[in-house]
Write a structure and sequence with these properties.
The protein has 477 residues and is α+β, with helices and mostly antiparallel strands. A five-stranded mixed sheet has the order 2-3-9-6-4. A hairpin with a 2-residue loop joins strand 2 and strand 3. Helix 10 crosses helix 13 and helix 13 packs across helix 18. It is globular, with a radius of gyration of 23 Å.
Length: 477
């Protein structure tokens, strides 16, 4: 073992030991929720992070909930942790961010997202940044430019699919959502030379969130930081080109993308703009691409849902043909009632945003227990979505359960994009893109798995084999 690696391990173990000692001291006087602090030094982190099937909550959560209840104590990520699967406590924590709790991100995570990231901001700074991003992802822009782009990109991607071809649904979903976002962020077209490499670099970058933060050449974390640098360099070169051009590019095009708007309407330094662009790319792309992969996976084993979806979308296609129209409109999207049920069920069962972390800033009482100052609060949305007291047969893919909740209305226990001040700003865009993708997929193709595969939690949702499917053209239109 190299000296640098050994030194980092010793430091990490020392920090973990100090935290564990503090946790043991806190254990007696506080009315902590019941639980288990696990092994010395590492607590229960390894058990918590053990990969498991995406359509479950994993052995760790199943065991602890059955033994201790919906709120329990543990020792995760080097700190005393209160884990909650109770919607009431989850909402209590989220609505009291900035008062009793703060966002809890590690130094390694901060290095990945950048110091100006909206994920790290709090208070008025967070509100301002969030307002800026939500302005870019506004409903009006979704109704017009994002819907048009999603419609166009879906046609382009699926036009290359031939009857009987085997494709990676994961890769196709990634291209679909990524192409849309880079066009709206910086007017990058599909034939841009960076486009082919960008999905690979982004996939490497996202691995930083689920690997040990060891910055040594060759490690996943080191590769992720290099990929972040590649993406940021791409942003910087585009900024410099626009500054040098001094209006040489089409002004309307620049004004229509997020980079152009930031350059014209803010005095943000280059580094801050890069961090914001990367955050918007993550918000608008990552959730969507994983959700579309899950859509394809769940529907492959539910032909009844596919048939009902096909009839819904064919009705839209026939109606438009009768009126001499071909482009998808916002009114068409609003008619996709069963599609929205399928999207809801995919988000519930797939659980892409599985949990989030907060840190208690003072001793806080909730019902019969105390959440100690400095402890980590892990809010587990995935376990809420799989709670049999809230959802009948929760492990079953059943989009019809949502027919009793018309449209996109959701219960207080449904939190696929988080909840509160830090709800994913790309939530509405993700739903829109999933619906548009289905609109072009369902009437034209059937599919089956080309080889066995299933989604696992790492804790990101991953398909180990890339979700290879064999597509068959259908003549339902």
């Amino acid at each position: 073992m190299e000296p640098a690696t050994l030194l980092l391990m010793i430091i990490a173990l020392l920090i973990a030991f100090l935290n564990f000692t503090r946790v043991r001291k806190l254990r007696s006087p506080k009315k902590l929720p019941p639980g288990n602090l696990g092994l010395p030094l590492i607590g229960e982190t390894l058990s918590f992070l053990k990969p498991y099937s995406a359509a479950t909550i994993g052995e760790f959560m199943e065991h602890h909930i059955s033994r201790f209840g919906k709120n329990f104590s543990s020792h995760l990520f080097g700190n005393l942790s209160i884990v909650s699967t109770d919607p009431e406590l989850i909402w209590f924590v989220l609505k009291n961010e900035g008062k009793l709790f703060r966002n809890d991100l590690s130094f390694a995570f901060k290095k990945v997202v950048g110091k100006y990231s909206m994920s790290l901001a709090s208070g008025d700074v967070h509100k301002h940044l969030r307002s800026t991003v939500l302005g870019f992802l506004s409903i009006e822009r979704l109704r017009t430019v994002f819907l048009q782009d999603a419609d166009h990109v879906a046609v382009q991607i699926m036009s290359s699919w031939k009857d009987g071809i085997v494709i990676s649904a994961k890769d196709e979903a990634t291209k679909f959502s990524l192409y849309i976002m880079v066009k709206k962020i910086m007017s990058m077209s599909i034939d841009n030379p960076h486009i082919e490499k960008l999905p690979r670099e982004y996939d490497s970058f996202i691995k930083a969130f689920v690997c040990f933060p060891l910055y040594i050449p060759g490690t996943k974390y080191w590769k992720a930081i290099q990929s972040r640098k590649y993406i940021n360099d791409m942003f910087k070169k585009e900024m410099e080109a626009r500054i040098e051009a001094k209006g040489g590019r089409n002004e309307g095009e620049i004004e229509d993308d997020f980079l152009g708007w930031l350059m014209k309407n803010t005095d943000y330094p280059q580094e801050k703009i890069c961090d914001l662009l990367l955050g918007v790319l993550f918000a608008g792309h990552d959730t969507t691409s994983r959700a579309i992969s899950l859509l394809i996976y769940f529907l492959e084993s539910c032909p009844t849902a596919v048939e009902q979806l096909r009839e819904e979308h064919l009705q839209i296609v026939r109606s438009k043909k009768q009126n001499g129209e071909y482009r998808l409109t916002w009114d068409d999207y609003k008619k996709m009632e069963f599609t929205k049920c399928v999207i809801n069920e995919t988000l519930r069962l797939g659980n892409i945003a599985r949990f989030t972390l907060r840190c208690a800033t003072k001793d806080t009482e909730f019902k019969d227990h105390v959440i100690p100052n400095g402890s980590t609060v892990l809010l587990h949305f995935g376990a809420v979505h799989m709670d049999p007291s809230l959802y009948e047969d929760p492990t079953q893919f059943n989009p019809w359960r949502w027919l009793s909740s018309p449209g996109m209305k959701a219960t207080d226990s449904f939190m696929p994009f988080g909840k509160g001040l830090r709800t994913c700003p790309g939530a509405d865009l993700a739903r829109l893109e999933m619906a548009v993708f289905l609109h072009h997929l369902i009437p034209k193709f059937d599919w089956e798995l080309a080889e066995p595969d299933h989604p696992i939690i790492t804790p990101l949702v991953e398909f180990p084999r890339g979700l290879l499917i064999k597509v068959r053209a259908v003549s339902a239109c």
